[in-house]
Design goal:
Largest sheet of chain B: 5 strands, antiparallel
Oligomer: heterodimer
Number of strands of chain B: 11
Number of helices of chain A: 36
Strand content of chain B: 15-25%
Helix content of chain A: 40-55%
Radius of gyration of chain B: 31 Å
Shape of chain B: extended
Number of helices of chain B: 9
Radius of gyration of chain A: 38 Å
Strand order of the largest sheet of chain B: 1-11-4-8-7
Strand order of the largest sheet of chain A: 11-30-29-28-12-24-27-26-25
Order of helices and strands of chain B: HEHEEEHHHEEEHHHEEEEH
Chain lengths: 1071, 343
């Protein structure tokens, strides 16, 4: 046995894994520390499910145990399928010792799983490296560009075309001019050697003008854009409000080229486990005998939010307490101390009725191995409140009740399944009483109650349940029943008969269960919180206000996914309808989609008189989807099987159309690759910008295929983060990333682009106008030095400062008004139309810049009679006007004047004059007479009043229309951003802005949590004693050992798939 | 937030205004009063400026006499380049109805002469003109060398096409009395041009300085014989040459030729009366279908007689005023609901 790195693991190796280790490759399980070659794994990284799954080795190989020598001699040959991406299927055959054993998914441990509750196991590597199912599921990495980039490429091509057009016009004009006018001018200016025709001259002029006018094609633009994005990325990295103290992780922009796309997101695809939820269940509240425990009342008797400031109940006095448990209501402890029998019974039930396995770790601490985190939360709660579940055998359960050990005899275990939605145990207590303890979904359990239950209690508990559910908690109702000996014995006999029966065994057992689980006495209810990540609800609410559609893509079960949907406010009871697509073949799926659509449009038609606008927009692409706006909220739930069919090409559009009209879409039981396919579908057919967020390896493909991938960092596993473009520690930071950073980035980038195009047009087109007066001879208007320095020195910094620092509204207001996000989604701030506006603005400015000095310099002389209308003075006047006009323009564009903006804008103008005077100075001319021929020009021109009058008039003429248009636009058609700016300004005057948090309102539908995270079959495991250590040898006399040793596992598998189907059938009836 | 491990605070971003994007800043805001004030103020300023400029332009007296057609015989003579050595004089009488007060400047004005062509502008040697090296003719194509490979001084198309008419203004108080109006050719150039940009090489005798070079082909005389009366006004420092070498931006331009010396009759300027221009017609303009004229003009502090700037200011001012009234009207008629953000 030797330590190896993952990279060195090869197919055929036998490797040993220890508890809580990540599995390095796809393995065939050979043996494990647990009896019968069992092995527990957590597949959260693969499918997001967090409950433990059982894998078991072939019985022939499990005998190998931990014997090194025998393992080393293992020489079985595995023939199996080729590497593929199906996580839930495996077929293969193991040939060993002249016999063949078929292999299925139950014998395989996939890479990316984590070994749990199993101290070690051995496995043979079947697939390694890129062949593993996990890696097969991760999509290809693509080079990501933003939509602005793509638009830019088009625009640059257009500009280039425009440039060529100008060149051709000027070239032809030059030919004509040379022919008509220049010809007569030949005495003063001969042809150069070798170019003696006007056509050739025109050709040369064309190229000269291409070179002169090339400043319209903004080459420095790309560099500047990258600089701006880099700046924005640093702002994300530096944001303290996206820093998570818990894990000490700051947000990180891992790509610096996608920032402005963050301001254009329309669809967010989110993983569930680890992203929306923390994957922690906590016992929050309970209602016992009509009284609520777990709420905090302040002095005035008002309910208050549980805050961290409140002192939790101190459990540290109890040696067995679990430290992480927190409960905030002292009154429950008081009730326990007072010995309220109902409270005791309630807690006893929690300690008895479950499938938890106790274990002691090396430090002697009691550790619970839980199969569903819900149950873990309940049992831990009971433990902390003094009813400690200590140990169990197949026949007994030992608990410590307030310090005294009590052993109950376990008579029957009525296991959970998804139809019953409840579980019960029948125990005999030391006093000899037989009791049935039951917990289950409230809807189911309330029907089973005895009529002798007090009406008050029922209605109170019912109210409490609604209240719990309203807070997003998962609820369970708790009830018991006293049984008399005789009745139980009869029933038990019938149960044995039923178990022995060959046909209709399950049905008969179910009937018997129904029979005994009635006339229950209600004890109360529990409320368990599937802890969402902090701030998820606020984030989801504000993102949906920002018109961002959130789709949940999870590998988890449908019920869990729906529950989380409710908890996050994505699904609410106010929704008009919820469509569940759970067909098992293409025909069913198509039918279900059709029905869903029919009902969607049917409803529209039914109240079409004014309430509903159903407008058809133009088709997007050739296989486009008709987008119709449907008022009313709809939700779509689809599972992985159906999704596979829905993604087929002929149904694809129907699915997409339906999904896009729904407010919320939840895809459950999807494979990583399907996640990517869904993202691709929306990306390709909707023309929308997508963002995928996830934390695990199963999200990698989705993160890679979305326009922007976000990884949740700071937890185990780095795959998602490594594949992502942005990463942070908490889902709630998505709100800030999109609404603040994304919006700002987009806003700044658009302003930057508009200004940049404007500036270059204003700068360059002057040459075009001058061409008409200089015989199209490709004479530049400005001095060569000015042309060189203009874009780099004189005007680059102010616009960069604007691109990096500008803000229209502050971050708090961006968060408070998610509607501000919509211009980005609609691409309003920079598009082709805007580009033309900028271009026209630039052309107008260039015209003003040229016409006014031309008119003024025509036939003019200076104050001292000397002439000032020479070419050099004209160049200096134009250049100065240009610098001043574009500086005034950037000053108008900058809406957020920081010190840096001031320094850059004033600095640029100052730099211009400094450089101008330096280059026109006597000294530099005497050193380089031919490089700096403008000697004395600045001084001479800029001391003339006339020149300043020209500059002033040019500035007024080019800036005033802009001011007028802007003011009128804001005055007449203010955008939300304008209004908020105005309001913000008024607020600032009045008082410092107070921070407001959106009120969180939750839906109040009642949902029982029990059905969700639980798997059937564990009852059998317990009662058969299969999962118990050798120190509790299974008793052969127990009735459940009727099954042979593997049947329960097969049952387990069978029923897992059944649950999904049965539930979905249950739902489809509703359609 | 409850757990805040001290050692991990190193990864916490700095709480500086720059990094948190909280730099104190002014927000530019177009408020109605602000914009309207700016508009009205600009309008007032432009209107006033325009009126001042128009008035000042109107106070300028300017006489322009286009002598292309008047001296038709000379023009015809000059069309043929072979007649370069034949002198042609032309006298143009005119009547000055009003006295020209103050400094009077005499300009020549050319129409349709493209001093702004790309190859033309480049065709000069600044090193040569600065007197560093009379042989430096690299930049002067196509007038670098004469046919016998002697460098031209001053080289280049600009110098070669120098305006070379001689214009003399005479005051004729009576039909028999002809008083030559005293004119100065000094101080018609920029100071920097005369003292920095243009220098003669350092020899005592100008002719020696330019030994080894030849005159431009269009010139009748070499550079050191430009002004026979004033030996200092020769070589590269000749004022007319310097003025010509400062190329015009547009094909129609006027250049300062002489300025009035205010003595004797002319202390107050040019008195009203009969005058005549005696022109030695050398510069051929009909070849490129151009025209030439002579201009007498007074000056104000805003320059010469050009209505454009005044009109442009007036128009801009008027438009701005109109715009500000319409903006005000629009602003006042628009009903606005006060904005309160939804809570």
């Amino acid at each position: 046995l030797q330590n190896e790195k993952w990279m060195n693991v090869k197919v055929g190796d036998i490797i040993k894994l220890e508890n809580n280790q990540f599995v390095a490759a796809d393995l065939l399980l050979l043996s494990s520390s647990e009896p019968h070659g069992l092995c527990y794994i957590e597949t959260a990284e693969l499918d997001g499910e967090t409950n433990l799954k059982v894998r078991h080795a072939l019985s022939v190989t499990s005998e190998l145990g931990g014997d090194m020598n025998r393992l080393a001699r293992f020489d079985g040959i595995v023939v199996c399928e080729a590497p593929n991406n199906k996580l839930d299927k495996f077929t293969g055959v193991l040939s060993w010792k002249d016999s063949k054993h078929s292999l299925n998914n139950e014998k395989i441990i996939l890479r990316g799983c984590v070994l749990r509750n199993t101290s070690w196991c051995f496995g043979m590597v079947i697939f390694a490296g890129p062949d593993t199912k996990l890696m097969q599921n991760s999509g290809k990495t693509k080079f990501k560009r933003t939509s602005i980039d793509r638009l830019m490429n088009t625009l640059v091509l257009w500009i280039f075309g425009f440039l060529v057009c100008l060149g051709i016009i000027l070239g032809i004009a030059n030919s004509i001019w040379e022919n008509q006018v220049g010809d007569q001018f030949r005495t003063f200016l001969f042809w150069n050697e070798g170019e003696k025709s006007s056509v050739f001259s025109g050709f040369l002029t064309f190229w000269s003008y291409i070179i002169i006018l090339n400043t319209v094609v903004p080459i420095s633009l790309y560099v500047s854009m990258e600089v701006i994005r880099l700046g924005h990325s640093y702002f994300i990295n530096w944001d303290r409000k996206m820093y998570y103290y818990g894990t000490a992780t700051a947000a990180e922009a891992r790509t610096t080229t996608l920032n402005e796309e963050l301001g254009q997101i329309e669809y967010v695809f989110s993983d569930k486990t680890g992203t929306l939820t923390q994957n922690i269940m906590t016992f929050k509240k309970c209602s016992i005998n009509g009284r609520i425990y777990g709420e905090i009342h302040d002095d005035l008797g008002q309910k208050t939010e549980i805050t961290k400031k409140k002192e939790p109940v101190d459990f540290s006095v109890k040696s067995q307490a679990d430290r992480t448990f927190q409960f905030f209501d002292q009154s429950l402890m008081e009730s326990i101390k007072l010995g309220d029998p109902k409270v005791h019974e309630f807690l006893r039930l929690l300690a008895l009725c479950h499938t938890v396995m106790p274990e002691e770790n090396s430090a002697g601490q009691l550790i619970y191995q839980v199969q569903s985190p819900d149950e873990g939360a309940l049992v831990t709660a009971a433990r902390n409140l003094g009813f400690i579940f200590k140990s169990r055998t197949p026949e007994t359960i030992t608990i410590e009740e307030l310090g005294t050990l009590v052993t109950y005899q376990l008579l029957a275990f009525l296991d959970f399944n998804n139809i019953r939605k409840r579980m019960s145990v029948i125990v005999r207590n030391p006093e000899g009483q037989i009791k049935l303890y039951s917990k289950g979904a409230d809807t189911v359990l309330f029907e089973k109650l005895h009529s002798s239950n007090e009406e008050d209690l029922l209605s109170l508990t019912s109210d409490h349940l609604s209240e719990f559910a309203g807070e997003g908690l998962r609820t369970l109702a708790i009830a018991y029943r006293d049984l008399d000996d005789k009745y139980f014995k009869e029933w038990h006999k019938m149960l044995e008969d039923a178990n022995a029966a060959i046909d209709e065994r399950d049905e008969r057992i179910a009937e018997l269960y129904e029979e005994i689980e009635r006339d229950l006495m209600l004890l109360g209810a529990t409320a368990v919180e599937d802890k969402l990540q902090e701030g998820v609800i606020e984030t989801v609410t504000s993102l949906s206000l920002a018109n961002i559609k959130i789709w949940v893509l999870t590998g988890d079960k449908q019920e869990t996914a729906i529950n989380i949907g409710y908890a996050c406010n994505m699904l609410t009871d106010d929704m008009n309808d919820m469509f569940v697509i759970a067909g098992n073949n293409a025909v069913e799926v198509r039918e279900e989609l059709r029905k869903a659509k029919e009902s969607l449009f049917g409803q529209n038609r039914s109240f079409s008189n004014g309430h509903i606008v159903c407008e058809k927009k133009q088709q997007l692409e050739l296989d486009s989807v008709v987008e119709e706006t449907v008022t009313g909220d709809y939700a779509l739930i689809i599972n992985g099987h159906s999704l596979a069919y829905a993604l087929e090409s002929d149904v694809k559009n129907d699915f997409l159309e339906l999904a896009c009209m729904c407010k919320t879409v939840v895809c459950c039981r999807v494979t990583p690759l399907q996640k990517a396919q869904v993202v691709e579908l929306v990306k390709n057919h909707r023309n929308a910008v997508t963002l995928a967020i996830g934390d695990g390896a199963n999200d990698v493909s989705m993160i890679k295929s979305a326009h922007i991938g976000v990884g949740i960092s700071g937890q185990e596993g780095l795959q998602a983060v490594l594949a992502s473009d942005f990463s942070f520690a908490q889902f709630r930071y998505l709100q800030r990333l999109l609404l603040v950073h994304g919006r700002w980035s987009y806003f700044r980038m658009c302003k930057f682009l508009c200004y940049f195009f404007y500036k270059n047009f204003a700068f360059t087109l002057v040459h075009f106008w001058f061409g008409f007066f200089c015989g199209f001879s490709a004479q530049t208007v400005y001095d060569q030095w000015f042309i060189t320095l203009f874009n780099i020195v004189y005007t680059s910094l102010p616009v960069l400062a604007m691109g990096i620092f500008d803000q229209d509204v502050n971050d708090q207001n961006s968060m408070d008004h998610p509607q501000l996000y919509q211009p980005g989604q609609l691409n309003l701030l920079f598009n082709k139309h805007k580009f033309f506006t900028c271009m026209v603005h630039g052309i107008y400015t260039s015209l003003a810049l040229f016409i006014i000095p031309y008119g003024a310099f025509y036939n003019v002389a200076g104050e001292d009679g000397q002439h000032i209308a020479d070419y050099q003075s004209f160049a200096v006047t134009m250049a100065t006007s240009l610098v001043i006009v574009v500086s005034v323009q950037i000053a108008l564009d900058t809406s957020y004047w920081t010190v840096i903006n001031h320094v850059f804008i004033w600095g640029s103008i100052a730099t211009y004059f400094c450089i101008l005077f330096t280059m026109h100075s006597n000294d530099i001319f005497s050193t380089f007479p031919s490089q700096f021929p403008f000697v004395g020009n600045a001084l001479h021109s800029l001391t003339q009043k006339c020149v300043w009058l020209v500059i002033l008039l040019t500035t007024v003429a080019s800036v005033m229309p802009v001011v007028a248009f802007r003011f009128l636009r804001v005055d007449l058609y203010p955008t939300l951003s304008d209004q908020i700016r105005q309001w913000q300004k008024a607020q600032k005057k009045a008082r410092p802005p107070r921070s407001r948090r959106p009120q969180t309102r939750r839906s109040s539908s009642r949902r029982s949590g029990y059905a969700f995270a639980h798997q059937e079959g564990y009852g059998e495991l317990i009662t058969s004693g299969k999962n118990m250590r050798a120190k509790n040898p299974p008793t052969s006399g127990l009735e459940k050992t009727l099954y042979n040793s593997t049947s329960w596992i097969e049952n387990l598998c069978k029923k897992t798939t059944d649950t999904v189907n049965s539930f979905s059938q249950d739902k489809t009836v509703k359609l | 937030m409850e757990k805040r491990p001290q050692h991990d605070l190193s990864r916490l971003p700095d709480n500086t205004a720059l990094k948190q994007q909280k730099l104190p800043a002014q927000q530019l805001h177009f408020s109605a009063t602000g914009v309207l004030t700016i508009f009205f103020a600009t309008g007032v300023f432009c209107l006033c400026m325009g009126i001042i400029l128009i008035l000042s332009a109107n106070s300028i007296q300017e006489i322009e006499i286009n002598y292309t057609k008047i001296c038709a015989n000379c023009a015809k003579l000059r069309e043929d380049a072979f007649n370069f050595d034949k002198e042609c004089n032309c006298s143009i009488p005119f009547y000055l109805s009003r006295e020209m007060k103050g400094n009077v400047y005499m300009y020549y004005k050319l129409y349709g002469f493209h001093q702004n062509l790309y190859r033309y502008i480049l065709s000069r040697s600044n090193s040569q003109l600065a007197g560093k090296d009379v042989m430096a003719v690299e930049d002067c194509a196509p007038f670098k060398m004469s046919h016998n490979k002697t460098p031209i001084a001053p080289c280049g198309a600009i110098a070669n096409s120098m305006f070379n008419d001689t214009i003399i203004l005479s005051y004729n108080p009576t039909s028999s009395l002809h008083i030559k109006v005293p004119m100065l050719s000094s101080e018609i150039t920029w100071w920097t041009d005369k003292y920095v940009k243009f220098h003669n090489p350092h020899y005592t005798n100008l002719a020696e300085e330019f030994a080894g070079t030849t005159k431009p082909p269009n010139w009748p005389k070499p550079i050191y014989e430009l002004d026979e009366k004033d030996p200092k006004n020769n070589g590269f420092l000749n004022d007319d040459l310097i003025v010509w070498m400062r190329t015009a931006a547009f094909p129609t331009f006027k250049k300062l030729y002489r300025r009035l010396i205010r003595t004797h009759h002319f202390v107050k300027g040019l008195p009203a009366g009969n005058y005549s221009f005696n022109i030695t017609y050398n510069f051929p303009v009909t070849r490129f279908q151009g025209e030439k004229s002579v201009v007498l003009s007074t000056q104000t502090q805003y320059g010469s007689k050009s209505l454009f700037l005044g009109l442009a200011y007036t128009v801009t001012g008027a438009v701005t005023w109109m715009a500000s009234f319409s903006i005000m009207a629009i602003h006042l008629t628009k009903k606005r609901e006060p904005f309160f953000p939804k809570q």
